[in-house]
């Protein structure tokens, strides 16, 4: 709308098509989106379910925005949207463990949201549930907050290849490839948590909406197995 990025998108598309692993990352992200879209149309009317599905829709929007930003050379905003995915995933991870917290969060005052549900609190609670072991949560949230959202003097890697800061968007293989992995990884986690949040329902498989959701879920979990052993080939901040 303001800056013509068509040439950048064309160049980044070339980088993506040249990388089999990047294409697989994008395909896996598509599998997550298919589940989330199908879930949004399930015949679920309870207030808690609607709250969860709205978070799923937020995952869809943040994933789409992140992918679009990365394709068009805006790597820092792409990281900011991944941070949003991580934060939403924290909530869904909590809700699939403690269903009563869904209504507590939905009806909470601003003070209670800050005291109980801000990301730092959620990370601590989830780590406690997992036995207090060090987890990816702190490092992931810190990285995407610093690189994507909170301005810090030295957190300029996404806009500064080899520490040479670029003016405006630019094509870059390392960044678009690396962010494709991060997007797929964190989106899939949020998707898996959402599936478990609504997994207690006895859904009518004769309903086409339900069967579409279940088919998407099968494809998603098949893709998860292939993705588990993968690591990020590119550090997008170098």
Short summary of the structure?
The chain has 238 residues and is an all-alpha fold. The protein has one domain.
Structure annotation, total helices: 10
Based on secondary structure, the structural category is mainly alpha
The count of β-strands is 0
Shape assignment: globular
DSSP helix fraction: 55-70%
Distance between the termini: 29 Å
Which consecutive residue ranges, at least 5 long each, have pLDDT under 50? none
Radius of gyration: 18 Å
Q: Supply the number of structural domains.
A: 1
Task: Write the SSE topology.
Elements: H1 6-17, H2 20-40, H3 47-71, H4 75-97, H5 100-106, H6 110-117, H7 119-129, H8 136-149, H9 173-197, H10 208-227
